[in-house]
Amino acid sequence: MCPACYLNGFLFLIFGASGASIANNPWVIALAIVLTLAGLYWMWKAWKKRTPGKTMKNLKTTIIFLLVFAAGFTTASYITHEYFKNLYEQQTRLSSFVTENGDKNESIYIISPKDGEEVTNPVKVVFGLKDMGVAPAGTIRKNTGHHHLLVNLDVLPDLDLPLPSNKNLIHFGLGQTETDIKLDKGINTLQLILGNHMHVPHQPPLISKKIKVIVK
After folding, report:
1. Residues 103-140: pLDDT tens digits?
2. Predicted confidence (pLDDT) per residue in 68-97, tens digit
3. In terms of CB atoms within 10 Å, which end of the chain has fewer, N or C?
4. Phi, psi (rounded to 5 degrees) for 49
């Protein structure tokens, strides 16, 4: 019997199967498949080195390792399925919101500058909001929120969590309705999203149409 072979095979199988179940990058998936095959090789090597006269013991050991692997793989697949299911539901919810509201008057919008406008630094951005009130962060009041400005942001953040604060996602937690901002020369994108007292987007989320401005 070769305990080290079983251990190597078991570890390769865990890493390979886990990687294959959670990855969405083809190179990572390919690597995971290689690791899984390596795990199966080490399991076969361990079986080849079985102790004579102890076939049943080696067979039981191999089966136990494979069962543990199967249990881990099933658990990882279930967790991964739930993760991508939640992600899909979030994206579907956002797509439905955009579809339902795309042709209507938007509740949140950028008053100035206009889409496609040529501007110079600093750029004055004025926020617009309908049927809702503006309140500072930390204020618990029905039908209110505060603005967040998305600058050159291609992918929306997680809409179920507090919005992060960085150079591309600017918080206006004091309840501001306009700002002066310095943008890079060339084409820039601007978009608004309303957050509640905890900086979490409302449900459904209030997100403005993304506009482009050209900084001279």
Report:
1. 444 789 999 999 999 999 999 999 999 989 999 999 98
2. 666 666 665 555 555 555 655 655 555 544
3. C
4. -95, 20
Domain 108-215: CATH superfamily is Immunoglobulins (2.60.40.10)
Tokens of 208: 């403005």
Q: Is the pTM of this model over 0.70?
A: no
d(CA 122, CA 174): 21
3-state secondary structure of 84: helix
Q: Where are the domains of the chain?
A: 3-100, 108-215
User: What's CA 150's distance to the chain center, in Å?
Assistant: 17
Is residue 6 within 8 A of residue 46, CB to CB? The reply is yes
